[in-house]
Specification:
5 helices; alpha+beta; twelve-stranded mixed β-sheet; 32% strand
């Protein structure tokens, strides 16, 4: 094997190794509250699977971007629930049918009582009988947040308020394209599911709509914002993405 051939092979192997490393890179994003510094959410990505822990610490969500499956894990009951696309669609239809029955009952009530009940349902449960329309609008403003120059985006989800975000290109945070795609797929799936149910189920924005990774987000109903404190791109423990031993699967009841 001559020197040129060895050089070409070596270069090719190095290039492939780097590409594979980038594609399989792990990432961990930690968001904190702007006024207290309290951890509000942690997003961890490994091999196309995303784990999202929120501020309450009473469970977490796993999302497999390959199968578009959501798994919610509940440590208190030592159980987990799996929702694939078919189950989400079926659950959405079940909720829609239930809403139609409820609407029929409401229509039989006197107008004043019906308005009161509809207001209570929307206020307490954030539900309506209509699918939620979402929109993301850039307002042309920029900010300096957490060492980044970010672009403001206003995300609206129906009449359930709005979220002010400040986003940067994903590559600016050192996150691989594969990891960014996995997170975007999770938010897209959850937002679509929320729209089908007619409520926000805690989803304040959809990453595919805002066109970047937020370093700042503030819901119109909150006093403080969530700010990206740090991004880790080293290897993450595989055990984080496993269902703990002894947990039982909870079946979704569609009736």
């Amino acid at each position: 094997m001559n020197r040129m051939t060895k050089t070409v092979l070596t270069t090719t192997l190095v290039t492939l190794s780097l590409a594979a490393g980038q594609a399989m890179a792990d990432a961990r994003l930690v968001y904190v509250q702007s006024d207290t510094g309290k951890t509000m959410s942690i997003i961890t990505i490994k091999n196309g699977v995303v784990r999202m822990d929120d501020k309450d610490g009473d469970g977490w969500v796993l999302f497999d971007s390959g199968t578009e499956t959501l798994t919610t894990v509940d440590p208190e009951s030592r159980s987990y629930t799996v929702l694939d696309k078919a189950a989400m669609e079926k659950l959405g239809n079940t909720v829609s049918d239930a809403m139609k029955q409820m609407q029929a009952q409401l229509e039989s009530m006197p107008a004043e009582q019906r308005a009161m009940m509809e207001s209570m349902l929307k206020k307490q449960f954030g539900i309506s009988d209509d699918k939620v329309e979402t929109s993301a609008t850039r307002n042309g403003k920029t900010r300096e947040i957490a060492g980044h120059t970010c672009e403001e985006v206003v995300f609206r989800m129906g009449n359930q308020g709005e979220t002010l975000l400040c986003v940067v290109p994903t590559e600016e945070l050192g996150i691989s394209a594969a990891d960014a795609d996995a997170v975007a797929a999770m938010y897209r799936t959850m937002s679509q599911f929320a729209a089908e149910l007619g409520n926000s189920i805690g989803i304040s924005y959809s990453l595919p709509d805002v066109g970047g990774m937020p370093v700042y987000s503030r819901d119109s109903s909150d006093d403080a914002a969530d700010i990206l404190k740090r991004v880790e791109t080293g290897s993450q423990p595989a055990a984080l993405f496993d269902i703990p031993a002894g947990y039982r699967q909870q079946q979704v009841d569609f009736d």
